[in-house]
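The authors assume throughout that readers already know how a fold can be written as discrete tokens. The format is easy to grasp once an entry is in front of the reader. For illustration, here is how one protein appears when written out as sequence plus structure tokens:
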Amino acid sequence: MNLTDLKISRPGLWFPTLWIYLVPFGNQESFWTSWLFWLGLFFVTFPLNYLVYGLNDYNDEAADAVNDRKGNYLFGAKASRKHLDGILYKIAMVILPFVVIFTYLSGFTMLLLLIFMVAINILYNFKPFRIKERPPFEIFIQIGYVTTAFFATALNNLETLPWQTLVYLSLFAFQAHIAGEIMDIEPDLASGKRTTATLLKRKNSKLLMLGLLLMESFLVWFWFNDPVLAIFLLAFTIWLLFDVFFFFKDKPYSVTQMKWFGYAINISALLSMAWVLYKGTLV
């Protein structure tokens, strides 16, 4: 285990699992005083993302090798085949202790949740399933991220989230995945990888993302009565409109621009996390 493994876990992309883990704690008092909260929070950073992105990188060496945005802590490593050949064992060694601990603490339901987390990543990455190259199903399978919310409620004995929240979190996961596909169109085409974005092309993929953002904004405003979060999402929507029709259109982003987008997304994720915890409207 070394710094390459930390890069493989993509710290710059930890925000989806962190964000979804924190949602059930909205309006909870003094949740930060619980050691279970912190143990779960740690799990959804490096260990869970090492599983998710480690399995991804194990099967994506060709695409990553020609991907200029890779090779950093923001978007992930460009790991050698020698390093990747040992990654399945290391993932098992990282994840198995948590499976034992969480099952002991929360019982059989937790074991099923953790098995599902592993299974959905195997279906996504490995043949004969390899759903990551079966558009549009590679978008829909991102619903697996919502399992992080069930994990949070089971571990911390919280109330089950309403179905409306699960719909919103699913849309959030779809939109975040499409954003990554848009940035990877060129390397994916160069390596022969099929995704929704390579089929729809850049502009149509951005319009799809735009539609998801509008749906999220509508649901947050009218289902959860949270105009602040809705306006935050609408601001991102307006930026994307200018991106599609005036600024970038069909042009790819430069690596520098993608990095700035990555930093901006992380900052916005932190701000929205704080608001969701404070306001608690999503629960």
Remarks:
- The chain is about 70% helix and 0% strand.
- The mean pLDDT is 93.
- The chain has one domain: 3-279.
- The first helix runs from residue 3 to 8.
